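Chapter summary example.
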Amino acid sequence: MNYATIPSRMYIDVTNQCPLHCLHCCTSAGEPAADEMTTREILDCIHQGAQMGICHVVFSGGEPMLREDLAELICYARSFNLHVTLLTSGVLMGDKEAAFFATLQVRENIFVDLVTEESQD
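The structure predicted for these 121 residues follows.
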């Protein structure tokens, strides 16, 4: 018997760039990687994932909000009726961005991971 299943979600690290340079960062984010995917490559991944039957795409990084084409990527994913989650530090989130994400029903997972108990508070 073939028990192969379709993944329910696809994670795309859209950039390695991040303004925070946290010591505990699991991706060692900071500067953009030299070989980051182009807009077209990411759109192709989303399209292929939708054709496979995934139902959820997660944009992460680094800090995905540093991608100038993030709105285009989100709109494209939503055009396939995919659920979208944004993994972000939230430092670039303003009212305009929050309203845009709410309009497109984007879930934001905002991480607040600090080094000491005092800075976490």
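To summarize the output: The chain has four helices and four strands.
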